[in-house]
Each structure stands twice: as C-alpha cells, then as structure tokens.
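Q: How would the structure tokens look for this protein?
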Amino acid sequence: MEHTHTEFVAASPDRVFEALANVDNLPRYVPQLTGAERRDGDRISIQARYDGHSQEGEAWFKADAEAQRIEWGAPGSEYRGSIEIKPEGEGSVLSLHLATVHADIAESDVIGTLDAVRRLVEADV
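A: Here is the predicted structure in token form.
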C-alpha cells in the first residue's frame, strides 16, 4: 500500500532538513520511534512501539542535503519512504511518500504522524 501526503511547516527548508536528517532526532519527531542510533554507512538501528508492542530492528537511512530529500527503509522488506522538503512562502512543504506491506495502516495514521512531525519540528526550529 502506498501513501502520499504533504504538510506545510512554518520553518525554512534548511532548518527542517537539518532537524529531520539527524538520526538522533528521529525519536523526537516520529511518535512511534522510541530510539534510533546510526550504525555503519546508511544503516541505523531502531526501537519502536506500535499497537502497544515494542519492536527493534535494522533500517537504512539516507539524507541528501543538496536535494533536500531523506529516504529510509527496512532491509529485505517492501517498506520504504521518503520526505522531500521544498520552500513555500515563509516556510516549507514536506512531501511524504510511504510504501508499506501492511494494508491495515490507515491514511489517518499516516496523516497524523506527518502532522506530529510538523508540530514537533516547528516547536524546535
């Protein structure tokens, strides 16, 4: 299942990218994540909480400052996503694309997560 959404953020694209591209910040901005740590290269380890269950795993995470684009995914899985950050007036627009194998993820959950990212980033930057 694929999801695409956009969200306006009242902060400059550079500041938004800087905040979201830092792996250490991921648990602050993505409500489901409880921990994230950079490993070798593009690999990260993550801890998350979904539907009351704690999970740990490996993921990849790539941040391209020139393109203002962040991509992530889970090795050996169809799960992947990206966020592009573009200037818009006095702020930025986040464009989220998410592909997941879980057909039970509701659009409202994806929109809620993106809105939480927006609010938390705006509070910090």
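Residues 109 and 115 are 10 Å apart (CA to CA).

The chain has a mean pLDDT of 89.

Upvote if useful.
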